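Standup notes
- HV: blocked on the assembly model, inputs below
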Amino acid sequence: MNDSVATRAAQATPPGVARRVKGLSDRAIAWIFVGPTIFLLLAINIFPLIWTIRLSFTNFRANRPNREVEWVGLRNYERILGDSDIWLSMQATAHFLIWTIVLQVLIGFTLAWLINKKFRGNDLWTTIIVLPMMLSPAVVGNFWTFLYQPQIGLFNYVITWFTGADPSSFEMLGSVNLAPWSIIIVDTWMWTPFVMLICLAGLRSIPDYIYEAAEIDRASKLRQFFTITLPMVLPFLMLAVLFRGIENFKMFDLVVQLTGGGPGSITELASINLKREAFEKWRTGYSSAFAIILFVTVFGLASIYVKALNKVKER
Amino acid sequence: MCDCCHEGNILVPWGAWLGRGVARHIWWPFSDCGLKNAERGLMTRTTTVRLAGLGALGLLGSFGSAQADDLTLCWAAWDPANALVELSKEFEAESGHTMAFEFIPWPNFADRMLNELNSGGQLCDLLIGDSQWIGGGAENGHYVQLNEFFDSEGISMDDFAPATVYAYATWPKGEPNYYALPAMGDANGWFYRKDWFAREDLRAAFQEEYGRELGEPTSQKELMEIAKFFQGKEIDGNTVYGASIFTERGSEGITMGITGALYPWGFKYENEPGSYDMEGAVNSAEAVEALEFYKELYDCCTPPGYTNAYMGESLDAFKSGQVAMAMNWFAFFPGLYQDADTGGDKIDFFVNPPQNQAGSTLGGQGISVISYSENQDAALEYIKWFANPEVQAKWWELGGYSAHNAVLNDPGFVDSQPFAADFLEAMNDVQDFWQEPAYAELLLAMQKRMHDYVVAGQGTAQEALDKLIEDWTEVFEDEGKL
Amino acid sequence: MSGLSSAWSVTEPSSRQKWIAGILVIGYALITMMPLLWVFLTGFKTPPDSISYPPKVIFEPSVEGYVNLFTTRTRVTPSQLDALPPPANFAEEIVRQRDMVIAGPSKFGERFMNSVIIGFGSTFLSIVLGTMAAYAFSRFRIPFTDDLMFFILSTRMMPPIAVAIPIFLMYRQLGLSDTHLGMILLYTAVNISLAVWLLKGFIDEIPREYEEAALIDGYTRFQAFYKVVLPQAATGIASTAIFCLIFAWNEYAFAVLLTSGNAQTAPPFIPTIIGVGGLDWPAVAAGATIFLLPVMIFTILLRKHLLRGITFGAVRK
């Protein structure tokens, strides 16, 4: 009796509903599938961002839970923009950013161009070149301090070997003139492969027939390079520059291990300064404002850059 | 691609902006690399989740013996810490508790531990924290106040050297509110190559150059002369250097080194103690002279590459036979004396030389119970045990610096080690940095100004100290103390 | 392009060009490898050898660095040393030559395991959540998808230190500071946006017809997802997992700020191995070698896929 009721009920149910009974509705599935991700992102991305904005208008200090928190309006922002030490750290960041990008683009593109000559075993050597960028910047940076030791360090020894200078006569990490270059060298060593890989993808995307046509037009190799190779790789190259730019604007781990911002404050990049303010001085409100300023800066610069990149692409 | 996920994270939105073109073409390829079983083994380890609540732990506790706790003691990683491990074995045997240790290297110690305290962490039950932390530890409720405990257990602070009680245990300074038990007395001192100082040829050359005997310096300026004398000398076929001094930027190194010159010159933090009136004190003529002295010492007489040197580098320079003299904390002296290559009769020690007055930079720590700990009773038990005079005597024997009067006033103390008398002398004239709750900010400001001037060579000593006053004034204003 | 035409193709570089290019690239590769090789060699030096001048390339190998990496040691006086029983193992023997005895194991093993737990845990979670979300974004209509994702991803432009400020406060409230769970959740949040985007691309590629056929056969949506879609996306899932794993493995800034002991991973720990009473570079090098080697081996093993992938992706328009 029961059976027949069930059967009849089932038969009366339209097929679409039957599927819903067997499983969950598409809408429910969609929410179940997306829900955890959205929740996690809200909890660990969006909520903290809003909190940071809120904190940036207060004088809150995370190490002083008992102190009264006051709203200070825009005072944190005013102080940051008027602080000469912050501007020095922005200068240090800009110096680091510009030179790493210049060097990485030059070396990375050259390497990609050479690898694209498709000599035997190029894939193996490419892999070896790629290795540094797979590694932990903190661990690598820490070890580079050893290589940079005057006298006993490998780097100084190699330089001595080529130039004949006294290996204890120059201090890569300790001297005011050389320290900014010491971090540029390591970052270039580490991240040139990234630019190289993207350039390589660009070079390989150029169809052969374009060169064949140019050859028929008797364009010189040099002319081919400037009229075909470079323009076709440019969007890729610009993309690589964008990524490196954003990453190096945020640079923390590598440089903190290498110089810790020293000597003095010569290599104190924005992120290192921020870490000092936020987690050593514990000026939470102040450093939140600094964080927001950095975020807006990088977002603004990147947006302008992407506009330019789109123009290049359209051409 | 170390950061590839990071890269990709940024890449994709821009890719989206670019009509999702370029980005995909570049990153697509990587997706082709297959690794079928990447997640294999993911489930083999369960993650340990620390419960914030006490309930579950209470249940676990009742499962085993209620008395036996696992205590974790946090301290810096250095020679005395190893001695403490040895010493604590007795406590384990007596109490039935087990001890675990978390020793963090000095350059990271303050950073890590203050972070831990500020995050309300439960890593440490006991902390041997630096003397300057006491203000923050007390005011922010990180440390348990020990007065009641001391009273009930009959532990008297009068049994400990007054300088150490004042510096390591009290907050506000000098008030009878105790947040720690003096655990390790320490000051910054010097050691030198006794065997080099005894060489006839060197002694004669020094006599000729400076018109006096080569020996332990009796003033800071004599110290510089000796350092200059040794700088660049060939000894046993090696080039040696004058002195290794603290220049470290990241934590507290250069400040601890420079105050070793500032205090003997008569440097004061305030015109009137407690007034926060620093103009004319911090940048007094004596302070400027002392700072210039330290810069000159750095420029003339340190080994190459010692631009960011602290305890480890100082020891390294000395043990590898690079320097004639080195500054470091007394805590290392037992280890140095035992060293096979440069210890024994090759080494001797002296107190930080006076200039206008005697003065040494205070090191050392008190032991505190962390208020976030779930094992406070066992932790207090440890402190009670540690305060015991016999344990304190053993502590000194093993290489720790007891601050207990029973040990320090023992007639045999002065001769028990070649540096024991120096230690007592140094502790008579110690001064400490600010112990304010805002100490970290004050210290970081000083680190920056000092390193900018001494190592990076920017500006003058006067400017560095003037800027330091500005920084400190700002901190005290933020604190509402000015 | 094809083998036949290559002999006289105008785009094929001459063999002289290939030689020059090869030499230059190999030269660069060798220079780039030197620091890594030096890490490896230093790990097998004794501490005095590691700081000798000129730097030693040929030396008597020693495992002292590895012994120091895995142990803590206490200094003893020669008389105490003489009173000890003969060394029980090779490690003890090495340590005693420096007038020390082994006091116990170091924290390196624990920190390395933390790296493994947090790395694999967060990768697993990112992939599970990421695959589900990517499937939903790919197959169902979800409002404001693009805007939402773009905004979320743009928070990645914030320096990690900036993100760490509120996370630090939040974790303090929740008791997640210095826990494995806290770090796993954080790394998952960092990785998941990439995972979703990459995986959505893969799932978009799988023809809907497969699932529709399965649905008609009486599968539920969920069954269709894991019996039809998942196997098809396996390669994509695996490669996404690699990126997530490498990120979590190498991450430093969050780890140094949000962990202090229980859940500390290897990257903030390795630089602190430096030693007590003298700089112990061989131990640091040993730690770095153990930590970096898995990633290097991984990269080399996957190089065929990696490089073919690049070419493949570039050719695809």
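- HV (later): unblocked. Chain C touches chain A through 103 residues (CB under 8 Å). The domain at 109-208+234-270 of chain C is CATH 1.10.3720.10 (MetI-like fold).
- Next: hand off to the docking folks.
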